[in-house]
Design brief:
heterodimer, A: alpha+beta, BirA Bifunctional Protein, domain 2, Methane Monooxygenase Hydroxylase, Chain G, domain 1, 2 domains, two-stranded antiparallel ribbon, about 20% strand, B: alpha+beta, Alpha-Beta Plaits, 5 domains, 7-stranded mixed sheet, 17 strands, about 50% helix, flat
């Protein structure tokens, strides 16, 4: 379909270079199990509060229930997202995105590209946004979202989030029948690297996970997160929230969570997510929002009558 | 006379909101013009995914001036003893921002003529940003960047031109101008519009068909041509196809239709799955052969031109195949299991947290269905089929296919049930228990399906009411109103004589804890509200509906609709008023003394009493009243003269207790018949 078939790592390198040029800081994948790039603190936490933030990173994302033992051509226990966040959302964010497709060698005139309404919501993280999925010749390759609410709090400054499904995008670019046939780089195939872990993780999640261990961990992680939130230790607390979320996903995949219990778990995660967003903003406010440089906005948020003015400032 | 153009440039608007936003823009513009008394010859709307626009043709140079006469105080009060203007007169002048020298004296009063001069069109149009653009209402809103302003999608540009002159205003940081954007890929984002009347041609040169109707016609003709060339049948004259067409029209600015294929082997997958994959997931149109069989091809529309369309076809085919591959996988896997396997899995499925499991819900629905079937005197075969259907009718919720395509619940149930050897009736009932799916869609056709549909919905309403999950205002998250409408419409379509009051009372008694807190009369009121709503929608008079649905007794839906229909049929009769008046006179008095004793003709004191008595006796003897409300109404109508005569000659409140009670007994006997028509006192007699 395209003259030059980029390997998966070429795609990552190209996107990194492109977005770095647009002012995004290249972060590294977060070292904690997450279900999506949105859960990385580089998106979830930074989307809160008034500070600007531009970042791009690859995030391996685990979704235990989507595991298919390496048998399904598209579904994976763990896939890779290329995540871009720009806050406040630039006026030309759609054009910047389309530029990234061109950088990947996708000539816009030779394809059909559409922005199809798709509003994103992650109730367990109290997050919701408005946006589209981007269709490339009928295939959904990107999720495009303007965050409106994060951790149950209406955002001060809107983050534009662009999430590329790397496997999908690469499948399109390389035109291969299954993800396992994708070239990761240097002639090594995706299947060579991920087929075995896909099988093992699926088998683990669906058949061999230790339920009582997971249940115990959920409780422990939750109480640790709660304790840390009380101490204002936002980042360690958030790590434990991510851990409990992942443990819940494992429990859910094993089919041992009834619908009622499911609602209960989600409620517990949501409660923590709401709190961490609030505490994150409080802690950043104590530091006087160092990334916020615009004088008018500083006045608006931490000036005398600012939304986050401390007692001493007042 | 000039032409004015307003274009709001947006990031892609959700397809389902484009058309309504276009009409809203026209409406708000017309209000705006009226408010400012600015005349135009016509308003032409445009819309695409990225723009909403109106072109005002024949705009007057300025608004019409206004001349209003204001009456002041009487001349007596307006002048003091010296003939000077009084305080009152001066106050009036000040209030109207005029001078006493402007006064005219006429008809004993002082008058001021207030003239508001016309305002130039360009001055008025500067306000269109504030008074039209910002006033648009949407069902979804968002904010962007650091703004707190909410709109359907970010506003990226605004064009406001009066002929060739820019009308200047700002919305947030966007200033109006003459620069629009062409097609995202075929054109550029810097297209200058010279003159407001060149909008359509300028955009068309930039690969944008701004007129939504023109664009839709183009899509239809392109699709039809491809179908015709290939001898495929494309059906567009049905609701889902029209909805798809509407959506497709609102995600493209420059449409080019194309066809794609998929392997014939996928035709083994049930049609509904194929159609859902194509229509719902990919926005494709499916095609059939002349005998209506699905063909392994599809039609779609690209937002672009013919160039390199083979890429687009190949990409779309690949995506569809991936979906069909998934569907085929589920279809195969699902059939490896049995209904019993799925029924075992369903045990953990929750109906609602506060109510219980789906399995318990099914068990209750089974009992209720049984009761209904007995009341309706179903054959024993039908009762057996119903029993079986009620035991398994939710099994497909646990299949992979419904897990993936939840809109296929019921449809896959029917399909798999047949594959698993269930009989046709049972399979069909599984599909039909979800019907009607919306306020206007079809109700269940089979008897078993209809009973299951009614029972499933009644159980839902009762248990949700009992759990305190009662709809309020416009808030009905569990669709209980829709369920109640479904019950009413199904019973009506089936023409079933079903008394809901005893049925639901018994159901509540038998269902134990889960229905404990449900109040029968609340539920019946809730259902009767739906009856009334349906009658209102059918254009019946409110008072007639209220009358016909009152005194609902055992709540036989069919009977209530009959009453409303009968009263509606007669509402314009010449004698309607007098008949209702004489019958309500009886009803009012009867209600004062609700005597149930039998009538003793020996106690009659005048001829009118016996005459009325005989007339009623004849009615009852003829059994005419059991032949439906129409006959009942006409029979009661014949009592009009005897009733009038009766009241002319009879004092009901006789001093003699026996005589008096006997008279009330007679009135109550008649009222028992009248109440079978509802509560006629609620009819508004004009």
């Amino acid at each position: 379909m395209l003259n030059e078939k980029l390997s998966l790592q070429d795609i990552i390198l190209t996107l990194q270079q492109y977005w770095a040029k647009q002012g995004a800081n290249l972060m590294q994948a977060y070292d904690n199990e997450v279900g999506a790039g949105t859960q990385s603190p580089y998106t979830f936490l930074r989307a809160n509060g008034p500070e600007p933030w531009n970042a791009a990173y690859v995030q391996p994302s685990r979704r235990p229930a989507d595991g298919r033992y390496g048998d399904n051509p598209n579904r994976l226990f763990q896939h890779h997202q290329f995540q871009v966040v720009m806050k406040p959302s630039p006026d030309n964010i759609q054009e910047l995105y389309l530029g990234s497709l061109e950088a990947l060698g996708i000539k816009l005139l030779e394809h059909d590209i559409r922005f199809v309404e798709d509003n994103w919501e992650n109730p367990s993280m109290g997050a919701a946004g408005i946006g589209w999925e981007v269709w490339l010749d009928g295939m959904e390759v990107t999720q495009f979202t303007y965050f409106q609410q994060v951790g149950g709090i209406e955002v001060d400054s809107v983050t534009a989030e662009v999430t590329y499904g790397l496997e999908r995008l690469a499948s399109y670019i390389q035109d291969v029948p299954t993800v396992y046939d994708l070239e990761w780089g240097n002639g090594v195939l995706y299947g060579d690297i991920f087929k075995e872990p896909e099988y093992e993780h699926s088998k683990y999640a669906f058949e061999d996970s230790d339920q009582s261990m997971l249940l115990r961990h959920f409780d422990e992680f939750e109480s640790e997160a709660t304790r840390l939130l009380d101490l204002g230790l936002v980042h360690p607390a958030y790590d434990y929230i991510l851990k409990s979320s992942h443990v819940f996903n494992l429990l859910d995949a094993s089919g041992s969570v009834s619908v009622t219990e499911r609602a209960g778990f989600l409620h517990r995660i949501r409660t923590m997510a709401r709190r961490v967003s609030k505490v994150f903003i409080e802690e950043r406010a104590k530091l006087k929002f160092p990334l916020l440089k615009d004088a008018t906005l500083r006045e608006k948020y931490i000036g005398k009558n600012g939304k986050y003015a401390s007692k001493e400032d007042k | 006379m000039s032409t004015f153009l307003l274009e709001i440039g947006l990031e892609e608007i959700p397809a389902h909101l484009v058309t309504s936003a276009e009409s809203q823009l026209v409406e708000l513009t017309q209000h705006f013009l009226n408010d400012h008394r600015l005349e135009v010859e016509s308003v032409k709307p445009y819309s695409t995914p990225r723009r909403l626009a109106v072109q005002l043709i024949g705009v007057a140079d300025s608004s019409k001036s206004l001349s209003e006469e204001k009456r002041g105080p009487s001349i007596e009060r307006a002048k003091d003893a010296n003939g000077e203007w009084s305080k009152a007169a001066q106050g009036f002048a000040r209030g109207q921002q005029a001078d006493t020298s402007d006064f005219e004296e006429r008809d004993g009063y002082v008058w001021l003529t207030k003239r508001t001069p016309g305002v130039d069109a360009n001055i008025i149009l500067e306000k269109i940003g504030e008074e039209v653009i910002k006033k648009m209402k949407f069902t979804t809103y968002m904010k962007w960047a650091n703004h707190s302003f909410l709109y359907v999608r970010p506003i990226r540009w605004i064009v406001a031109l009066l002929d060739s002159k820019i009308i200047e205003f700002n919305i947030l940081d966007v200033s109006s101008g003459r620069i629009t954007r062409g097609h995202r890929f075929l054109s550029t984002d810097h297209i200058e519009i010279e003159n407001a009347d060149e909008y359509q041609t300028t955009l068309s040169n930039a690969y944008v068909i701004a007129d939504a109707l023109e664009r839709k016609e183009k899509i239809v003709s392109q699709l039809k041509n491809i179908a015709l060339d290939n001898d495929w049948v494309l059906t567009l004259d049905n609701q889902p196809a029209q909805e798809l067409l509407e959506e497709v029209n609102n995600i493209v600015e420059w449409p080019t239709a194309f066809a794609g294929d998929f392997d014939e082997k996928y035709l083994e997958i049930p049609d509904e799955v194929l159609i859902t994959s194509m229509r719902e997931h990919q926005r494709f149109f499916f095609v059939t052969n002349q005998s209506g069989e699905l063909l392994p091809h599809f039609l779609s529309v690209r937002n672009g031109d013919e160039n390199n369309i083979t890429n687009v076809v190949a990409g779309n085919e690949k995506v569809l195949v991936a979906r069909l591959e998934d569907a085929e996988f589920f279809y195969r896997e699902d059939q490896q299991k049995s209904i019993e396997d799925y029924m075992t899995k369903i045990k953990s499925l929750i109906f609602h947290e506060k109510i219980g499991t789906v399995e318990e819900h099914m068990l209750r629905v089974g009992h209720l269905s049984n009761n209904i079937a007995k009341t309706l005197k179903f054959s024993s075969v039908a009762q057996e089929n119903l029993q079986r259907a009620s035991e398994i009718y939710k099994f497909d919720l646990m299949t992979g296919m419904v897990g993936e395509f939840d809109e296929l619940q019921g449809i896959m149930g029917e399909h798999y049930a047949q594959k698993f050897g269930e009989n046709q009736q049972v399979a069909l009932a599984i599909k039909e228990h979800y019907m009607p799916k919306s306020a206007i869609s079809e109700t269940a056709t089979s008897d078993i399906g209809a009973v299951l549909a009614i029972a499933d919905k009644i159980d839902t309403i009762v248990t949700f009411f009992s759990a305190g999950l009662i709809p309020s205002g416009s808030n009905d998250p569990y669709g209980l109103r829709r369920a109640a409408t479904g019950v009413v419409r199904t019973i009506k379509a089936k023409g079933w004589n079903l008394d809901l009051k005893p049925l639901i009372s018994q159901f509540i008694e038998q269902s134990g804890k889960v229905a404990n807190e449900a109040n029968v009369s609340d539920i019946l009121t809730f259902i009767l509200d739906r009856v009334r709503k349906l009658a209102v929608d059918a254009g019946m008079r409110q008072d007639i509906i209220a009358a016909g649905s009152a005194n609902a007794g055992k709540v036989n839906i069919l009977h209530i609709f009959d009453r409303i229909a009968t009263l509606s049929e007669h509402q314009n009769d010449k004698d309607f008023r007098s008949i209702i008046e004489s019958l309500t006179r009886v009803a009012r008095l009867a209600k004062k003394e609700p005597v149930t004793q039998s009538i003793n003709p020996d106690l009659f004191e005048n001829a009118s009493e016996s005459k009325l008595y005989k007339a009623v006796e004849t009615l009852e003897d003829s059994m005419a009243i059991s032949e439906g409300t129409d006959v009942l109404y006409e029979s009661l109508a014949t009592l009009q003269d005897p009733i009038t005569e009766y009241f002319d000659t009879t004092m009901v409140n006789d001093e003699n207790v026996d005589v008096r009670l006997n008279r009330y007994a007679q009135l109550n006997q008649i009222n028992n018949l009248i109440e079978q028509l509802g509560d006629l006192e609620l009819i508004v007699i004009k």
